[in-house]
Amino acid sequence: MRKNNLIIVVLMLILFSVQAHSGPIKNETAIEFKSNSGQSSPAYEGFFRVPENRNNPDSRQISVNYVRFPATGKTKGHPIVYLAGGPGGSGIATAKWRRYPLFMALREFGDVIALDQRGTGQSEQAETCSSGQQIALTERVSDEEIQHRYQKAALECLSYWKQQGIDVYGYTTEQNAWDIEQLRVHLGAEKVVLWGISYGSHLAFSAMKLFPETIEKVMIASAEGLNQTVKSPALTDDYFSRIQTVINQQPLGTDISDLPALMRRVHQKLERQPLPLTIPQPDGSAIPMLLQRYHMQMLASRMIADPGRYLTFLIHIYHHLDKGNAELLLQVLQRGIFDAEPISFTLMPLAMDIASGVSAEKLQEINAQAKSALLGQFLNFPMPALNKLDSQLDLGEEFRRKPVADIPTLLFTGTLDGRTYPDGQSDAVSGLRNVTQIKVINAGHNLFTSSPDVLNRMKEFLLGKPVSRQAIQLPLPVFALER
Predict the structure, then answer these.
(1) Quick check: 45 and 25 in contact, CB under 8 A?
(2) Is the model's pLDDT at 296 over the cut of 50?
(3) Which pTM does this prediction carry?
(4) N or C: which end of the chain has fewer CB within 10 A?
(5) CA R_g for the chain
(6) pLDDT of 121-168, one tens digit each?
(7) Residue in 404, 401, 372, 356 with CA at minimum distance from that of residue 268
(8) Residue 425 parent element (H or E)
(9) To the nearest whole percent, how much of the chain has pLDDT over 90?
(10) Residue 2's pLDDT band (boundaries 50, 70, 90)?
(11) Which of these, 31, 36, 43, 110, lies nearest to 77 by C-alpha position?
């Protein structure tokens, strides 16, 4: 009889462990979560309180918010926590957008958590700071002056937030990683699975170093290493050379035989003689602008993440500018890409980037490369101009060392990623002893929904099955303007 009772107790404990979070837990409210496509799913909206700065014993508490999609599988695994990119991206907003099907599909393996990291999305955050610094649209300005004004603007904003009683030194990737551990405790989970992209991988690497014993697995794409907040200008140049190999395989190759040379030619023309433009506005007015070389470098840095419509437009903008035609460029500039408004910052992304920083050795290498690189320093702007702007914020060299861990890690790398490059991604995970890196041929930065095979490999990984390292092949992108 005792044996039977013991069996019943064990079965009840197992059942409880599986169903423990079938309903709301502390600080959660049941909601009907609606995606931007109109689809909906039952979920729980929740929050937990964390110290704004764990290094300050007198720190105030702030709220970190999330949405939890309950598990649907028969066997419930550890919670899967989504870490958005940026820094500054919203996990909740991502779940509403094009990755909604992924969030739903992964529920088969456990609760899926759309986390809004500290200072982002629905989590508690400081108001945006508008500085007293501006850059006129019609005046010629040097790179040095641009950097100087952004430095002054950032210092103004850091001071402004401090005056508001906000501890800016709490907005670092390490504090962000501690929030993940506190979320695990809040959920009552033994371990968590981390799922992230870009800066989300940067955050995952930090968590792997701090809490290896409470992270079961890691799934990442477009990896950004702990010393890769500032990307290598030389790798950016290599990227444009890879884009040329794609152009060579389509009719556009007849007109553009050397994209890097074309870009340099346009930059040199604008450096010698900036181009006066008049940008039409929706209300019928017009804004004058003096197009300079740095404008094109900044514009390019915003349009190259993925080999899609934006990159296609960019390639043709350069081609048309080389022939003296600015019509395509004006179509893009009408969206307000550049303005003469005061330089403004949001606390979380500004502080996170400054805190992660870049090592002195790598910065020296980057500065040397930037002198002749296609985009100079503007891929990462306003970094590295803000590096060590506030030395107390910088996390130091120990933080920037690569993670060394045995945690099973799955990494997807797009061969046409214009933000985090294949060689850099391989270097970022070189200290991990249990990593499976899968190349997605012709994919860019945002690749999680680029092919059904990506989700299939993720499912195999979560099931503990051997995951094929065979590359996933996508069609060759076509850089032709839509008619």
Answers:
(1) no
(2) yes
(3) 0.94
(4) C
(5) 24
(6) 999 999 999 999 999 999 999 999 999 999 999 999 999 999 999 999
(7) 372
(8) helix 422-428
(9) 93
(10) very low
(11) 110
The 10s digit of each residue's pLDDT in 392-423 is 999 999 999 999 999 999 999 999 999 999 99
Q: 22 pLDDT exceeds 90?
A: no
End-to-end CA distance of the chain: 79
Q: How far apart are CA 146 and CA 338, in angstroms?
A: 13
Residue 107 near residue 62 (C-beta atoms within 8 A)? no
Asked if residues 52 and 59 have their Cβ atoms less than 8 Å apart, the reply is: yes
3-state secondary structure of 186: helix
Cis peptide before 101 (omega within 30 of 0): no
Distance CA 110, CA 69 (A): 9
Which tokens in the block code for residue 263?
A: 């870009």
> What is the per-residue pLDDT across 31-82, written as a single tens digit (0 to 9) for each?
999 999 999 999 999 999 999 999 999 999 999 999 999 999 887 899 999 9
Contact 51/170 with Cβ under 8 angstroms? Answer: yes
CB contact set of 198 (below 8 Å; sequence gap of 6+): 85, 86, 221, 222, 223, 224, 419, 420, 445
List own/partner pairs for 54-62 with CB under 8 A and 24 or more apart: 54/170, 54/175, 54/178, 55/169, 55/170, 56/167, 56/169, 56/170, 59/167, 59/170, 60/165, 60/167, 62/118, 62/123, 62/124
CATH number of the structural domain 23-126+190-225+404-473: 3.40.50.1820
CA distances from 482 to 308, 316, 375, 472 (A): 12, 12, 27, 27
How many Cα atoms are found within 13 Å in the side-chain-facing hemisphere of 355?
Answer: 23
Please name the residues in contact with 353: beta carbons below 8 A apart, sequence gap of 6 or more.
87, 229, 383, 386
Q: What are phi and psi of 344, to 5 degrees?
A: -125, 160
Q: Which two tokens stand for residue 99?
A: 């990755």
Where, residue-wise, is CATH 3.40.50.1820 in the chain? 23-126+190-225+404-473
Q: How far apart are CA 125 and CA 122, in angstroms?
A: 8
How confident is the model over 202-212, as a mean pLDDT? 98
